Amino acid sequence: MMRHLPETPAQKNSLFNAMNRFLGAVNNMDQTVMVPSLLRDVPLWDDAELCGHKSDVDDGDVDMYSYYQLLKSIRQDIEWGLRVSPVVEETPLRLTRVNSIASTASSSSFASSLSSSEDEEEEEDLQKQFQYHLAGLQGVLGKLTTQADSLTKRYKQSIGL
């Protein structure tokens, strides 16, 4: 087993720790929920913590069982990577700037006209994009962790633990 060290304030906001907290919450949920079918037809919106995230789910037909399955599926995606359909061909990742002049000029003429200041600008854009998406991912992982903990708590209450 992996030994967990206490988090320092600087590490508290790391992506690695956010993922570990989420994985721990889902593993705890999975170990606690011994009979997942008891979650069927239990409305998700009875819980104040889960109710705050209604927009995360399509409509009111969602029960706790489907949310339990969703959380487990996300855990699997984090642990094993995204599942890719065999029909879809993999294409190389292209990093492009949004609203750049590359959309109006051909890529070959654009590449030949890049100056060092434009390269620096592009690197700054990539860094800003990375920071934006990192903050979003950490926020989503925090919400999912809270929801996994809430689902576990509701399951324990329903079976009298």
Describe this structure in words.
The chain is mostly helical. 56% of the residues lie in helices and 0% in strands. It contains 5 helices and no strands. α1 packs parallel to α5. It is elongated, with a radius of gyration of 21 Å. About 14% of the residues have low confidence.
Work out the strand percent: under 5%
| Rg calc | 21 Å
Characterize the largest beta sheet: strand count, sense, and whether it forms a barrel: none
> SSE order in H/E notation?
HHHHH
Q: Span from first to last CA?
A: 27 Å
Which structural class should the secondary elements be placed in? mainly alpha
The DSSP helix count reads 5
What descriptors fit this protein?
single chain, about 160 residues, mainly alpha
